[in-house]
Amino acid sequence: MKSVYVLQHTESEFLGRIEDHLEGRGIRFTYFRPFVAGGALPATVEFTDGLILLGGGPWGTAGGRDLPTLQEELRLVWLCLERRIPVVGIGLGAQILALAAGGRSEKTPLIFEVGAARRVTDDALNGFLPETFPLAVYMRDRPVPPDDASILAVDEAGHPAVFQIGVNCLGFTGHPGAKAAMVEDLLMEFEDAPEDPLPALEALRAAQPDIEDALVRIMTGLIGVTGMMRPATVPDPK
Asked: pTM for the whole thing?
């Protein structure tokens, strides 16, 4: 059975609807919560089949309010890239992936927006990425992928919404498995919150069926690109 590490940056944000898709494919996941008392990041990525980095609420990476564990998480992603271990970054996690791969992040205010993303390459996620799909973004700062990254989808402003690094690493600026309850909890967890979040929260509630539908295709493509279901490599006994 494959297993992945999941780095959680807030009490409220978790894998959401993605959990069901991983469990349905027999993929185990272990949450790491370095922000709680006694919590820590994994010491190594040697014993995992993949790394998922979640969003960070009001935390960013461009100098305004940087994630406290940013440097340690960059080191973990560097190790994954070096060893070709798949990485999936969501929101803040997409920024960390972009930085680790040689890109950068742009300083932007904390936003909560619900809109639509548009696929820009027909073969994105092995052809499974929907042509358009809901994009729920709760994030401070914005990832700028390196020049050699592949942009798979863009948001309504033309910024990367989904990008691919190498053959098996993916960044999503929005949470593809977002639940309205997660955002409600985020708004209560931190005093630092986006301005007037209620219209976007209503839009997220209304978009839940479309998010579920899009996630079926997104997860099929994600699993294929990351190889999380491929059999483990067995050394040749000779």
From this structure: 0.95
